[in-house]
Amino acid sequence: MESKALFERSLKVAPGGVHSPVRAFKSVGGTPIFFKEAQGATLTSVEGKKYIDFCMSFGPLILGHRDPVVQQAVHAMIDTAWGFGACEPYSLELAEWIQARIPWVQKLRFVSSGTEAVMSALRVARAATGREKVLKFDGCYHGHLDSLLVKSGSGLAGEASSDSAGVPESVARTTIVVPLNDIGAFERALEVHGSDLAAIAIEPLPANYGLLEQTPEFLKRVEAGAKRVGALWLIDEVISGFRVGLTGMAGRAGLKPDLVCYGKVMGGGFNVACYGGRADLLDLVAPNGKVYQAGTLSANPVGMKAGLTTLMRAESLNVWETLESRTREFTRQLNAGFEKHDLPWKVDQFASLFWIRERTSSPIRAISDIPAGHKAAYAKLFHELVGRGIYLPPSGYEVGFVSYAHTPEILDQAATQMIEAARKV
């Protein structure tokens, strides 16, 4: 059965034929590819074609698809139990491993998705402060919860409007949205709304609307502003946590969040996330406190085992240093090739994340800096690469990920094909 026929069937049972919007190829056009198998750095389509994969399930697979050590641990857990709905030692082991290595995670609660983690952390922040509003930054994505699925409005100092049907304007108005990399707008928002803010939330490495690396100075100013107005400092490391280093972006930038959210890499490819932070804040959560949050599949033992095995293996192999070195060389090759052939492309890189975008004369740190023609240009490049056996995220605003399974030889092969594809389009 080919991808086209499968997609036609899917359209009859799921909205847009998919279970997460970006998979529908709306941003790049064409018919989504259906994959039947994954191993290491490659995907295999239902047609039997192999692709070098840089989407990597949008980030979780830091060791690659079906790492053999993680796979062995998962199989052993499946042969032991699928779930308990009761206390078990597997989540305790993962929680203690994280707590021992990240000083600002004094306690944590496991959940099943990044959206659920941020939603729960915001509930804690509102309970702790007695305040209602939240400040976020335009270009940071925190999941599909109502209060953060908003965009900048035309109101005073960043008041927001709904960015999705079904989100009440009354909910959207509890969120203040300011641009990234604009400390003036941030300070103005604090002047107007500071005393009403329960939390200031940010992706310290925004990676859901391009790779919008922020300066350490900006992040430090935002952290100081949160403390000055009495808002909790909430860092969303669902993507960057355990991806850019053992202690994530907070560790690299010297930040000390009150609350932090992790996901993706922490679950080893399974549906695992958590929110954590100061013990006094987490003790507000039921059954200790009055902030209610629960989940039938929270701390599922298979995900706990996969996550702990992934993190332990990453630490023992010093995966983060190796990946950063490989990704830096990979993107250096790409940029050198683009410049040699005078092509209008540039690759931004941070740790093992990269973003292919249209070349500009200055860094892109806010969504307003992204060239207007980027989406259409990327779509052409994406399809040319698919034809050459390279699979990037099917959106020009998603970032690519390098895994430990991407050997230097695989990366050299991919770089050659990507430069030739860019020349052709």
Question: What are the key terms here?
Answer:
425 residues; alpha/beta; Aspartate Aminotransferase, domain 1; Aspartate Aminotransferase, domain 2; four-stranded mixed beta sheet; 13 helices; 16 strands; 17% strand
Describe the protein's topology:
Layout: H1 3-10, E1 35-39, E2 42-45, E3 50-53, H2 68-78, H3 89-101, E4 107-111, H4 114-129, E5 133-138, E6 150-152, E7 160-162, H5 169-172, E8 175-179, H6 183-193, E9 197-202, H7 216-229, E10 232-237, H8 248-253, E11 259-262, E12 273-277, H9 279-282, H10 301-317, H11 319-340, E13 345-350, E14 353-358, H12 374-387, E15 390-391, E16 400-401, H13 408-424
Parallel strand pairs: 3-15, 5-8, 5-9, 9-10, 10-11
Antiparallel strand pairs: 1-2, 2-3, 4-12, 6-7, 11-12, 13-14, 14-16
Helix pairs in contact: 2-10, 3-10, 6-7, 11-13
